[in-house]
Amino acid sequence: MMRPIVTLTMNSALDVSTSTEKVVSEHKMRCGTTRIDPGGGGVNVARVVRRLGGQALAIYTAGGATGGAFRQLIEAERVPTLAVPIAGSTRESFTIDETSTAKQFRFVLEGPELTEPEWQACLDVLEQWLPIGGFVVASGSLPPGVPDDFYARVARLARQHEAHCIVDASGPALSEALAEGVFLVKPSGRELATHLGRTLDTEESQVEAASELVTAGSAEFVALTLGGAGAVLASKDGVMRLQVPPVEVHSTVGAGDSFLAAFVLRLAQGRGADAAFRAAVAAGSATAMTPATELCHRADVERLEAELGASAV
Length: 313
What we know:
The chain is an alpha/beta fold and about 325 residues long. It has helices at about 40-50, 65-75, 115-130, 150-160, 170-180, 190-195, 205-215, 255-270, 275-290, 300-310, and strands at about 5-10, 15-20, 35-40, 55-60, 80-85, 90-100, 105-110, 135-140, 165-170, 180-185, 220-225, 230-235, 240. Helices cover about 40% and strands about 25% of the residues. The strands form two sheets. Strands 5-4-1-8-9-10-11-12-13 form a nine-stranded mixed β-sheet, with helices on both faces. A hairpin with a 2-residue loop joins strand 12 (about 230-235) and strand 13 (about 240). The two termini are about 30 Å apart.
C-alpha cells in the first residue's frame, strides 16, 4: 500500500504564461496564446504526483475572484483538495517567453497578507489531515503576515503525528525549518548558499554543504538541486550525485516541484532513496522539456527514469 501524501501551499498562485516577440519597455507587446494553471509549490507537487499515478491531498489558501478561478482549475485536474478561505485575493504569477531570443521572463507577485487567524487555520486543517506514517510536503513562499517559523511549526506538528515532513523553502523560512529539523529538504544551490552564508561554486563545496545539514541533524535527507549541473542527495548513508539527462530545455518553471513530487511519490510507494532520487531527476528534466508552465508527462518521466537507472548499473 502507498503511504499517504499531504501537501501544503500557503501562497498559491494562478500561473499565467504567454509569449511575445520581444520584451520592450514603454511599448504594447502583443502576446500569443495564453495558458493559465493552478500553481504554487505544494499544489504543483500534488498535480505531478497525480500525473505519475499517485494521489496527494493538496491543502491551499484561496480568496477573491482569482481564488475561485484557481479552485476550478485544480478541481478540473481531479486533484483531492482542501481550500482554506482567506480575505485577500489569490496572487498571480506571469511567465513571458521572448520568441526572438528564447529568453524567459518570470514575474512572481508577493501574494495577499494573511492574518493570524488565517494562517493558524491552515495549521489546524493540516493537523486534522496529517497522515500518520505518511508524508507532509510544505512547499513554496510564505505570504506577508505568515511568521518565518511557520514551516518549523509544520515540522513540529508532523513529528507529533509520526509523519515525515518535507520542506521546500528559502530564506528565513528554510533556516527556521532546518533549526527545527525535518525529514527532507530540497534547496537549490543558491538557497543553500544563502542559508550557510558562503559560496558553493565547486562540487566539493556542494557535497560538503549538503552533508553538513545531515550531520547537524537538520534533515535526514538533503536533495540539493543544481539546475543543469544535476543534483546531490546527502543522507547518513552517504552522498549520491546525478547529472541531468540530455533533453531539450523549453522552460524550467515547475521543474523543482516536479523533482520533489517524484521523490516523495517513490518513497511513498516503498522505493529506496536511490530510486526516488533517479525519479526526481527524471521528473525535473521532463518538466524542463515542456513549454511555459506545463508540467511533466508520465511517459517522459518513466523513460528518463529508466535511462538513469540503466546508466547507474
